[in-house]
Amino acid sequence: MLERAPLEVLIVTGPLGAGKTTAVNRLLKVEVAAGRRVAVLINEFGAVSVDGTLVDAERPELAGVENLVNGCVCCSLRNDVITTLQAWCDQPDGQRPERVVLETTGLADPTDLLDLEQEPALAGRLRLAGLLTVVSSLAPVDHLKTKPLLHRQTALASLIHVTKADLDPSAAIAWESELRAAFRQIPLVLSRQGATPEGSPDPWQGDVRDLPEGWAPASGASFAEARSLTLHWDHPVDPAALEGLLLAPPAEGELLRAKGVCAFAGWAVRNDGSDRWAFQLADGRLEISPLPLPADGVAQACAAVVIGTGLNAPHWKKALRDLERPPMGQRRKFSL
To answer: In this structure, are strands 38-44 and 64-69 parallel, antiparallel, or unpaired?
Structure first.
């Protein structure tokens, strides 16, 4: 009996809103086009998986999609990662993925994922193919020095993608200069809409380096400071009011990230039969994109996820609920 090739795993990490899911969708598209069976494991900080919904909508032909929410794949959800990867390794030929993209939450230190090959349940069955770190060129360039987690995420990379280079070329060049000075040995490319120039390094051929002596995981420090809030909408929301809330949020606390799925009041159903839209707030920019119907024809649930530090949860829940515009004759739900 021929020995089965190990399952190849590519870790994708980087700060909140850096563009990881866009990069992941590009990676998955390339794998599917090459005829390989590929699966994706997505970790999100929140009670619902918005990024998983976006991947599901874009890549319905994947060999598997698993979402791990309300925790970190590097610590509290590590056992779930191992269980999921083991289950994929156990699948019969023809169903078993050849490659897996593992997208971490932006608040995760990937240190504890670098020894997955040594896990007893995965030993000899899995190969860590690379660690791709995604950094937004729209973030302040001094974050490399002032944000310890970002420094750790980039220091462990086998390849760095500087995203959104088309939106501010000068900022992208500044980030490229800063990163090359700090990590001369790590390949780096600028990406636009998740796409990299032809001839760029292959993320799956990364040189995953040994940890520096004395290096230890960050022990979930970022999770201790950040909180997420999830609210499910029952009705369409006002697009202008949503934009106003997210671009000029309440002064209390710091809003790090916001994303979700919604229908917009007054917007017609599109030609593809869907009235759902995905919204993402990152780097002070709000992006809205159409969300097609899943293969089963059932529209995605509408929900918002807000991530930040020191946020007033009751205030945010009321503000998000107040965005709803119930159709004539219907009443908005409210919590007692």
So the answer is: parallel
* Predicted pLDDT at 71: 53
- C-beta of residue 158 within 8 angstroms of C-beta of residue 41: no
Q: What was the pLDDT predicted at 81?
A: 87
**Thinking of the domain 226-321, which architecture would CATH place it in?**
2-Layer Sandwich (3.30)
What does the block give as tokens for 17?
Answer: 């809103």
Amino acid at 10: L
Phi/psi for 81 (5° steps) reads -60, -50
Q: What is the pLDDT of residue 108?
A: 84
Confidence of residue 190 (pLDDT cuts 50, 70, 90): very high
| Position 21 confidence tier, pLDDT thresholds 50, 70, 90 | confident
281 DSSP β-pair partners: 258, 286
Lookup: tokens for 10? 């590519």
Residue 66 neighbours by CB distance under 10 Å: 20
pTM of the predicted protein model: 0.84
Structure tokens at 276: 């759902």
Which residue carries 């809003």 as its tokens? 255
- What residue segments make up the domains of the chain, in order of their start? 7-221, 226-321
Question: Domain 7-221 carries which CATH code?
Answer: 3.40.50.300
Given a cut of 70, is residue 51 above it in pLDDT?
no
HEC states along the chain? CCCCCCEEEEEEECCCCCCHHHHHHHHHHHHHHCCCCEEEEEEECCCCCHHHHHHHHHCCCCCEEEEEECCCCCCCCHHHHHHHHHHHHHCCCCCCCCEEEEECCCCCCHHHHCCHHHCCCCCCCEEEEEEEEEEECCCCCCHHHHCHHHHHHHHCCCEEEEECCCCCHHHHHHHHHHHHHHCCCCCEEECECCECCCCCCCHHHCCCCCCCCCCCCCCCHHHHHCEEEEEECCCCECHHHHHHHHHCCCCCCEEEEEEEEECECCCCCCCCCCCCEEEEEECCEEEEEECCCCCCCCCCCCEEEEEEECCCHHHHHHHHHCCECCCCCCCCCCCC
What is the per-residue pLDDT across 5-18, written as a single tens digit (0 to 9) for each? 899 999 999 998 89
